């Protein structure tokens, strides 16, 4: 039971999975623990995640814990076909993912995962959860809970909670400090620059790089772009984040102004139509536009195509749009450029993110029947454990409080 591009790619995929595992020591320790305790015996876990080497190591960890694991892709362009083949061939994990799959195939693969009647779902963008709520509500009664990997998905799920329609508990993996402070900032920063450079082979240094959104992903991207020698502009709608960007040394201005002077543009907002028709119309000749937010809605590609006089694919993942007075280039169809044109986040940072996924799934099982139908933040003890394990793996030691200090911090009577 699978649908992958080519099983002959499996051996290459296995080697790459093993290479990634060398930079994922925290998940490795959890795998050792799970292989002994088997917390997921009798549990089916359905996952809709980017099918990468790092995700493969998470799936293997869950299976070691006794789970029946089924996987599909959370983005049509993010699948690594050799990894998908290896998961099927070497690890006997049903996988439904083909790089470049069309929209119908994408949702057919989601349906294939749901047909396995999962007890726990793992999402990166909430597509499994939204499909259950819109089309497969009959499955909800057997679901203990779900985990969500990304900001965009958490936003969708919290909206469902507010409206009272959420049918089971969800753990917001993205909200863990050991996820968003590191994965979103350092992972997105590095992998997005990597994707843009691989797609274009253009120089970052000496150019104007426009970052739309100054959340943790935007902070990481701005930091890395500046480190590559770019002059960075930040576009924001939140006055606090805009002020923070100014204090961090970036220029801040509306997109309507940035569009006139930017050489590179990248959206990381989680919102729709951040770069629109009126922005394309004033862009410089040769402007390069990319997205590193989860869904392909941040760049208004539809309006661009309607406006374009001519369109052609000039390089892999680079589409040239000829407009009346200029040419602009959109990378990876406006989808996640770091996973479409590159390999996504480095394994070392995904080690923490997927450790959170694994331990969150165990948290759901351990609290069966106790959790309410709401979005939960990961418990602090899980977050702290992952941070401590990561530091240990890195060979870093840190201080601990003395008993005197603990007493002082708990007391109100010491004064000054």
Automatic annotation (TrEMBL):
<comment type="similarity">
    <text>Belongs to the adenosylhomocysteinase family.</text>
</comment>
<feature type="binding site">
    <location>
        <position position="124"/>
    </location>
    <ligand>
        <name>substrate</name>
    </ligand>
</feature>
<comment type="function">
    <text>May play a key role in the regulation of the intracellular concentration of adenosylhomocysteine.</text>
</comment>
<feature type="binding site">
    <location>
        <position position="345"/>
    </location>
    <ligand>
        <name>NAD(+)</name>
    </ligand>
</feature>
<dbReference type="Pfam" id="PF05221">
    <property type="entry name" value="AdoHcyase"/>
</dbReference>
<feature type="binding site">
    <location>
        <begin position="215"/>
        <end position="220"/>
    </location>
    <ligand>
        <name>NAD(+)</name>
    </ligand>
</feature>
<protein>
    <recommendedName>
        <fullName>Adenosylhomocysteinase</fullName>
        <ecNumber>3.13.2.1</ecNumber>
    </recommendedName>
</protein>
<feature type="binding site">
    <location>
        <position position="236"/>
    </location>
    <ligand>
        <name>NAD(+)</name>
    </ligand>
</feature>
<feature type="binding site">
    <location>
        <begin position="213"/>
        <end position="218"/>
    </location>
    <ligand>
        <name>NAD(+)</name>
    </ligand>
</feature>
<keyword id="KW-0378">Hydrolase</keyword>
<dbReference type="InterPro" id="IPR015878">
    <property type="entry name" value="Ado_hCys_hydrolase_NAD-bd"/>
</dbReference>
<keyword id="KW-0520">NAD</keyword>
<feature type="binding site">
    <location>
        <begin position="150"/>
        <end position="152"/>
    </location>
    <ligand>
        <name>NAD(+)</name>
    </ligand>
</feature>
<feature type="binding site">
    <location>
        <position position="52"/>
    </location>
    <ligand>
        <name>substrate</name>
    </ligand>
</feature>
<dbReference type="InterPro" id="IPR000043">
    <property type="entry name" value="Adenosylhomocysteinase-like"/>
</dbReference>
<comment type="pathway">
    <text>Amino-acid biosynthesis; L-homocysteine biosynthesis; L-homocysteine from S-adenosyl-L-homocysteine: step 1/1.</text>
</comment>
<dbReference type="InterPro" id="IPR036291">
    <property type="entry name" value="NAD(P)-bd_dom_sf"/>
</dbReference>
<feature type="domain" description="S-adenosyl-L-homocysteine hydrolase NAD binding">
    <location>
        <begin position="184"/>
        <end position="344"/>
    </location>
</feature>
<feature type="binding site">
    <location>
        <position position="183"/>
    </location>
    <ligand>
        <name>substrate</name>
    </ligand>
</feature>
<keyword id="KW-0554">One-carbon metabolism</keyword>
<feature type="binding site">
    <location>
        <position position="149"/>
    </location>
    <ligand>
        <name>substrate</name>
    </ligand>
</feature>
<dbReference type="GO" id="GO:0006730">
    <property type="term" value="P:one-carbon metabolic process"/>
</dbReference>
<dbReference type="GO" id="GO:0033353">
    <property type="term" value="P:S-adenosylmethionine cycle"/>
</dbReference>
<dbReference type="GO" id="GO:0004013">
    <property type="term" value="F:adenosylhomocysteinase activity"/>
</dbReference>
<feature type="binding site">
    <location>
        <begin position="292"/>
        <end position="294"/>
    </location>
    <ligand>
        <name>NAD(+)</name>
    </ligand>
</feature>
<dbReference type="GO" id="GO:0005829">
    <property type="term" value="C:cytosol"/>
</dbReference>
<feature type="binding site">
    <location>
        <position position="184"/>
    </location>
    <ligand>
        <name>NAD(+)</name>
    </ligand>
</feature>
<dbReference type="Pfam" id="PF00670">
    <property type="entry name" value="AdoHcyase_NAD"/>
</dbReference>
<dbReference type="InterPro" id="IPR020082">
    <property type="entry name" value="S-Ado-L-homoCys_hydrolase_CS"/>
</dbReference>
<keyword id="KW-0963">Cytoplasm</keyword>
<dbReference type="GO" id="GO:0071269">
    <property type="term" value="P:L-homocysteine biosynthetic process"/>
</dbReference>
<dbReference type="InterPro" id="IPR042172">
    <property type="entry name" value="Adenosylhomocyst_ase-like_sf"/>
</dbReference>
<feature type="binding site">
    <location>
        <position position="338"/>
    </location>
    <ligand>
        <name>NAD(+)</name>
    </ligand>
</feature>
<feature type="binding site">
    <location>
        <position position="179"/>
    </location>
    <ligand>
        <name>substrate</name>
    </ligand>
</feature>
């Amino acid at each position: 039971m699978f649908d992958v591009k080519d099983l002959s790619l499996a051996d290459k995929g296995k080697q790459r999975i093993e290479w990634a595992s060398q930079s994922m020591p925290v998940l490795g320790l959890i795998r050792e623990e799970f292989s002994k305790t088997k917390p997921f015996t009798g549990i089916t876990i359905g996952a809709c995640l980017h099918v990468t080497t790092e995700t493969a190591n998470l799936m293997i960890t869950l299976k070691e814990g006794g789970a029946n694991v089924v996987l599909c892709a959370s983005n049509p362009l993010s699948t690594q076909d050799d990894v998908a083949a290896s998961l099927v061939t070497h690890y006997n994990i049903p996988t439904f993912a083909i790089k470049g799959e069309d929209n119908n195939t994408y949702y057919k693969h989601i349906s294939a995962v749901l047909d396995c009647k999962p007890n726990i779902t793992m999402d990166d963008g909430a597509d499994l959860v939204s499909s259950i709520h819109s089309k497969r509500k009959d499955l909800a009664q057997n679901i203990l809970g779900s985990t969500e990997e990304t900001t965009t998905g958490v936003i969708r799920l919290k909206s469902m909670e507010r409206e009272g329609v959420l049918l089971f508990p969800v753990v917001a993996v993205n909200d863990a400090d050991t996820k968003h402070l590191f994965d979103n900032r350092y992972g997105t920063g590095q992998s997005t620059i990597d994707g843009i450079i691989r797609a274009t082979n253009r120089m970052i240094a000496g150019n104007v790089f426009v970052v739309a959104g100054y959340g943790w992903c935007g902070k990481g991207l701005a930091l890395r772009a500046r480190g590559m020698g770019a002059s960075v502009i930040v576009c924001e709608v939140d006055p606090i984040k805009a002020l923070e960007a100014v204090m961090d040394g970036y220029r801040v201005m509306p997109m309507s102004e940035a569009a006139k002077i930017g050489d590179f543009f990248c959206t990381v907002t989680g919102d729709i139509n951040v770069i629109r028709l009126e922005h394309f119309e004033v862009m410089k000749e040769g402007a390069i536009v990319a997205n590193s937010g989860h869904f392909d809605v941040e760049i208004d590609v539809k309006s661009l195509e309607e406006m374009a006089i001519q369109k052609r694919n000039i390089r892999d993942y680079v589409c040239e749009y000829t407009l009346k007075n200029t040419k602009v280039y959109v990378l990876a169809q406006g989808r996640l450029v770091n996973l479409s044109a590159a390999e996504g986040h480095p394994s070392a940072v995904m080690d923490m993110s997927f450790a959170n996924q694994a331990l969150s799934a165990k948290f759901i099982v351990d609290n069966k029947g106790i959790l309410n139908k709401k979005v939960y933040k990961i418990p602090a003890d899980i977050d702290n454990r992952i941070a401590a394990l990561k530091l240990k793996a890195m060979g870093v030691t840190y201080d601990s409080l003395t008993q005197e200090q603990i007493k002082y911090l708990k007391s109100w009577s010491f004064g000054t």
